[in-house]
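Exercise 7b. C-alpha cells:
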C-alpha cells in the first residue's frame, strides 16, 4: 500500500492527529495487505463517485480504497547528526511516498513550544534543514562513488552526476530537491538514492478548536500558505484536537457535531483527499452486486497491472477488461444501458487505465 509519513517537531499535535486517524481507522478485515503496526494507521479514501455507484448498483458491500499514514515521531534539531532518534527516524521517511508535515498554528499558553514561541515557518525550516542535511550526505557520497566508476566514460553515469550536481547546488542553497522540478527521466536516474527532500509534501496547519471550520484569519496559516506556494507544496488547515473528538463519534452524532462546527466533512477527510491527490494516484472501480469497490493505481498503469492490485492471479491470467467510464455509466443509468449505447469497451493488455474507469476483468486461472 502507498504510505504517507507524518512528521513535525515535538508538541505540534502529531500524536493527536495520528490518534484521530487510527480512531477513525479503516475496517482492517478489508485490507489484509496493510501493515499491522502501532505506528501505522490505515485510512479509507472518501470518494463521492463510490457513493453514487453504490446507489446505482445496490451491492451487498462497499469498500473504499485505502492507504497508510505512518507516525514518524522523533525529529528534533540535529536529527541528521544522529540526535534524538536521528538516523532511525530518517530511515523511516525514506520508505514513504509522501510527507505530511504537521505545523503548529494554534495558540495555547499551557502547551510548551520547543523553541519558546509559535513560529510555523521556523518549525518548517528546522525540519527541512535536517532533511536537506541528510540528502547532502547521500548526494555527496553518491557523486564521489559515481566519479570513481566513470573512468570508462559511461554516459548514463555522467548524466546521473550532472543531475546530482544540480540537486547538490539546490540543497546547499537550503532548497529541497523537489524545488528543481526534475523531469521523469531525471528522477529515474537518481531514484535509488531515495532523497528525502524529493518527496511531495503537504503541510497540515494545526489550528485552534475555534478555527476548525474557517482558519482564514489565522496569520500563521497565511504564512504557511505563502511558504508552501513558493515551494510548490499544499496546505490543509486542520484542528487536530477537534479531529480527535470527531473520530470518537459515529453516525448521527458525528453528523450533528460536524454541523455544529460548521463543517461539511471532517478535516481528516480533507487531509486524506489532499494526500491522495498529492501522491498522483488514480482510482478505478469494480462494481458487482456482491461488492462495489475502489482501487488505487498510479497514473499510467496498464490494465493487467491494475488487475494485479486486486489479485496477482488477475494479472498473471489477464485476458481482457470490460471498461466503461464512470461518467458514461452514470449518464446511461445502468451497465446494460451503457452496453446498448456502445460505451462498454473491451480493452487489452496495453490499455492504460484512466481515473474513474469502472472495470471488469476476464482472466484465466
Ligand atoms: P506531538 O508531540 O507533535 O505528537 O504533539 P501532541 O499531539 O502530543 O500534542 C501536544 C500537546 O498539544 C497535547 O497536550 C495536545 O493536547 C495539544 N494540542 C494538539 N493540538 C491542539 C490544538 O489544536 N489546540 C490546542 N489547544 N492544543 C492542542
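Sequence design result:
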Amino acid at each position: 500500500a502507498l504510505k504517507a509519513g507524518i512528521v513535525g517537531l515535538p508538541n505540534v499535535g502529531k500524536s493527536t492527529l495520528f490518534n484521530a486517524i487510527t480512531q477513525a481507522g479503516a475496517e482492517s478485515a478489508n485490507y489484509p495487505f496493510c501493515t499491522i503496526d502501532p505506528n501505522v494507521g490505515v485510512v479509507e479514501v472518501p470518494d463521492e463517485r463510490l457513493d453514487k455507484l453504490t446507489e446505482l448498483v445496490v451491492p451487498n458491500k462497499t469498500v473504499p480504497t485505502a492507504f497508510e499514514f505512518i507516525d514518524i515521531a522523533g525529529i528534533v534539531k540535529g536529527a541528521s547528526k544522529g540526535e534524538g532518534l536521528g538516523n532511525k527516524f530518517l530511515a523511516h521517511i525514506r520508505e514513504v511516498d509522501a510527507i505530511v508535515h504537521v505545523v503548529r498554528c494554534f495558540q495555547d499558553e499551557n502547551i510548551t513550544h520547543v523553541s519558546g514561541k509559535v513560529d510555523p515557518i521556523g518549525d518548517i525550516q528546522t525540519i527541512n534543514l535536517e532533511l536537506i542535511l541528510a540528502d547532502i550526505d547521500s548526494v555527496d557520497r553518491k557523486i564521489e562513488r559515481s566519479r570513481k566508476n566513470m573512468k570508462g566514460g559511461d554516459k548514463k553515469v555522467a548524466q546521473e552526476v550532472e543531475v546530482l550536481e544540480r540537486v547538490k547546488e539546490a540543497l546547499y542553497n537550503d532548497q529541497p530537491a523537489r524545488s528543481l522540478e526534475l523531469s521523469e527521466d531525471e528522477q529515474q536516474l537518481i531514484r535509488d538514492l531515495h532523497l528525502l527532500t524529493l518527496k511531495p509534501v503537504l503541510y497540515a496547519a494545526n489550528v485552534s478548536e475555534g478555527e476548525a471550520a474557517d482558519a482564514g484569519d489565522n496569520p500563521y496559516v497565511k504564512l504557511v500558505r505563502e511558504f508552501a506556494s513558493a515551494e510548490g507544496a499544499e496546505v490543509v488547515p486542520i484542528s487536530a484536537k477537534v479531529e480527535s473528538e470527531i473520530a470518537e463519534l459515529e453516525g448521527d452524532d458525528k453528523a450533528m457535531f460536524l454541523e455544529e462546527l460548521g463543517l461539511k466533512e471532517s478535516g481528516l477527510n480533507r487531509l486524506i483527499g489532499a494526500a491522495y491527490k498529492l501522491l498522483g494516484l488514480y482510482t478505478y472501480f469494480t462494481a458487482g452486486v456482491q461488492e462495489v469497490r475502489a482501487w488505487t493505481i498510479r497514473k499510467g498503469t496498464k490494465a493487467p497491472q491494475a488487475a494485479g492490485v486486486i489479485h496477482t492471479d488477475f494479472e498473471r491470467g489477464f485476458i481482457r477488461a470490460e471498461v466503461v467510464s464512470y461518467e458514461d455509466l452514470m449518464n446511461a443509468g445502468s451497465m446494460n444501458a451503457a452496453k446498448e449505447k456502445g460505451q462498454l469497451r473491451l480493452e487489452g493488455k496495453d490499455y492504460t487505465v484512466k481515473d474513474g474507469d469502472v472495470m471488469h476483468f476476464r482472466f484465466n486461472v
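Instructor comment: The chain has a mean pLDDT of 89. Residues 300-363 form a domain with the Ubiquitin-like (UB roll) fold (CATH 3.10.20.30).
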